[in-house]
Task: inverse folding
């Protein structure tokens, strides 16, 4: 049969051709739309940057308008609050503003961090862990912070204050005469600090911050119904707090206290309109004490689900879109808990974490594995905390020290220190990336007694001290003065390769003189419970540090009581150490305002602690930090005048604004 090309076939091919042309046109159009979307996205980012710069300019103009209005006599309550954070009027943000000026600066993305132990609560003032404090400082802000490079105080919520306290005689109302200090026999004075607050600060819910919120924060902490024992101890010497006007507040101490200004300036301010409900009754106060969330403030981030947050949920901090200050780069900060070093390291390698604090024992292996794909920083901050072994000196009954333990004799405690070859541990476990500690004060700072250095390993001296204390031998086994086998359990954090290695070293050292040591490895939350109930023989932990620390909570005899001791001053002298000499030195140092004289007293306190060894002070460890390569502006800070390294990283978790950011083309997470 003959094939013919009919009209029907012509129209069929014509239709197919038309469809093909339409498909080609559609593909071209889609490509064009993709290009257009990319172009629009770029334009939006440019507009976003322009709006950010415009906002800063408008806020600067607004600040000058406010200052002019106040200067010509306008009542401050008639002046509208403005968002002010230009360079001149917000020095706390100077380094973050420098980051904003970088050509690749961008907001967005998520900073993924980790904790090695679970955070049980983040409710202000009732949570006492360093992890909780880190979370709180993203959400709440203090009156002032230290410049991270110069360490000078710079205003955050406060914009001005008197640097030196105003001294006035304390007058007895009945006699009209100046009061006399019963301890020293000297005339008593009050010491007053006055702060002027910024007029532009508001909380994350939009309510303005005033001096009344600052006074409320003090009242909240000092209310005995609130379980804020540690914080209350810091503010107990404040005699009077007075609101002079809506943005001026005055704090008066009835006795000198060397950390008076630092404690006031570092107070994280609570909004009265939110937290006031918890002071309405004892039941509401107990509700707050039992709470785990309730974190509201003026900071750059807000806690996701803050009122309902509990330890079973992730810690997610979202950008505070109403933030009064300079916006940090990340839109979100997330914390995940890893109890094991291995799982935390795996998460970092899989891109699930942005920071990994390495242990010295694994450093060389990791540097070889990561090569140039990760940023690496090694430094020993001058405020590096210390690890220790605390020797419990008394068994507790009803929250009070009762029966002495073998560690109640300081000769035994000294012997335990002599038995530990800390230099060997520093080499083997820390690979030389730590310094041996000899007390609570950093050797690079003025509080440290320069005449003191760590005890060296001395097996003969240790044996001599143990025998002097009444211990005895049967064969190779050592017995206590009570005739009991000298054995104890050392409680250590679980999941730490470093502490596992140190535990093995300690077992070998103590075994050399016939002491039997068991290792009790506990997850951190259980370990803390044991610590608070004083249910341990010896325990290893660490304290954070500062440029000048107050050691009253850890070593003063008034702070030995546990949580069960009703009517007593509760503290963190977990080992039940008592020394009248040290008590007197601590009390005297705390009321000495002259820095040179105070340092002499601290040196004497250091000598007493060195002699008594309530702890075996172990190490101050270098920070070994790997950072994801997409994060920009991570650096070890330098002195602005000399250019020398300050051995501090510019991570804003200590209360300073976060300077890190992720350039737009490297961002991984959409928020």
Result:
């Amino acid at each position: 049969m003959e094939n013919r090309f009919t009209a029907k076939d012509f129209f069929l091919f014509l239709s197919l051709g038309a469809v093909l042309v339409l498909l080609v046109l559609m593909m071209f159009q889609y490509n064009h739309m993709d290009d257009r979307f990319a172009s629009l996205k770029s334009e939006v980012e440019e507009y976003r940057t322009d709006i950010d710069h415009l906002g800063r300019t408008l806020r600067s103009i607004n600040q000058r308008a406010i200052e002019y209005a106040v200067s010509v006599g306008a009542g401050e309550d008639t002046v509208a609050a403005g968002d002010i954070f230009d360079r001149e009027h917000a020095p706390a943000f100077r380094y973050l503003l420098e980051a904003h000026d970088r050509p690749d600066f961008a907001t967005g993305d998520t900073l993924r961090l980790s904790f090695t132990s679970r955070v049980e609560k983040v409710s202000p003032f009732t949570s006492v862990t360093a992890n909780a404090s880190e979370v709180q400082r993203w959400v709440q802000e203090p009156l002032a912070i230290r410049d991270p490079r110069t360490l000078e105080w710079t205003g955050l919520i406060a914009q001005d204050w008197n640097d030196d306290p105003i001294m006035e005689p304390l007058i007895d109302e009945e006699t009209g005469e100046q009061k006399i200090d019963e301890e020293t026999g000297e005339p008593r004075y009050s010491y007053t600090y006055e702060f002027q607050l910024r007029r532009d600060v508001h909380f994350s819910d939009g309510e303005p911050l005033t001096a009344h919120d600052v006074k409320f924060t003090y009242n909240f902490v000092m209310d005995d119904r609130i379980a804020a024992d540690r914080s209350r101890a810091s503010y107990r010497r404040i005699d009077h707090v007075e609101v002079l006007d809506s943005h001026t507040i005055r704090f008066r101490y009835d006795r000198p206290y060397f950390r008076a200004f630092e404690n006031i300036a570092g107070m994280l301010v609570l909004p009265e309109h939110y937290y006031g409900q918890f002071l309405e009754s004892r039941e509401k106060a107990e509700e707050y004490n039992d709470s785990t969330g309730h974190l509201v403030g003026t900071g750059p981030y807000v806690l996701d689900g803050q009122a309902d947050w509990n330890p079973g949920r992730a810690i997610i901090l979202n950008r505070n879109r109403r933030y009064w200050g300079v916006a940090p780069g990340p839109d979100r900060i997330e914390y995940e808990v890893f109890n094991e070093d291995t799982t935390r390291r795996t998460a970092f390698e899989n891109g699930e974490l942005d920071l990994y604090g390495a242990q010295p024992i694994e450093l060389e292996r990791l540097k070889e594995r990561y090569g140039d794909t990760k940023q690496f920083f090694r430094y020993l901050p001058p405020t590096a905390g210390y690890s220790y072994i605390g020797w419990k000196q008394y068994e507790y009954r009803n929250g009070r020290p009762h029966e002495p333990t073998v560690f109640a004799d300081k000769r035994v405690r000294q012997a335990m220190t002599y038995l530990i070859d800390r230099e060997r541990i520093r080499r083997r476990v820390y690979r030389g990336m730590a310094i041996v500690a000899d007390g609570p004060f950093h050797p690079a700072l003025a509080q440290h007694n320069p005449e003191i250095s760590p005890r060296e390993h001395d097996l003969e001296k240790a044996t001599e001290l143990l025998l002097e204390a009444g211990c005895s031998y049967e064969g190779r086994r050592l017995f206590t003065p009570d005739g009991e086998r000298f054995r104890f359990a050392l409680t250590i954090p679980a999941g730490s390769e470093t502490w596992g290695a140190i535990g093995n070293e300690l077992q070998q050292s103590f075994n050399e003189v016939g002491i039997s040591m068991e290792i009790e490895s506990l997850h951190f939350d259980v370990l803390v419970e044991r610590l608070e109930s004083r249910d341990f023989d010896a325990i290893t932990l660490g304290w954070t540090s500062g440029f000048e620390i107050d050691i009253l909570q850890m070593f003063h005899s008034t702070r030995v009581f546990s949580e069960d001791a009703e009517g007593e001053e509760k503290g963190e002298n977990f080992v039940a150490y008592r020394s009248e000499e040290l008590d007197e030195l601590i009390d005297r140092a705390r009321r000495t305002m002259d820095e040179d004289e105070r340092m002499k007293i601290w040196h004497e306190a250091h000598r007493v602690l060195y002699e008594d060894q309530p702890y075996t002070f172990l190490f101050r460890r270098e920070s070994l930090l790997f950072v994801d390569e997409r994060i920009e502006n991570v650096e070890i800070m330098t002195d602005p005048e000399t250019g020398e390294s300050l051995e501090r990283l510019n991570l804003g978790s200590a209360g300073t604004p976060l300077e890190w950011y992720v350039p737009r083309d490297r961002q991984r997470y959409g928020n």
User: Anything to note?
Assistant: The radius of gyration is 30 Å. The longest strand covers residues 189-197. Residues 37-50, 52-85 have pLDDT under 50 and may be disordered.
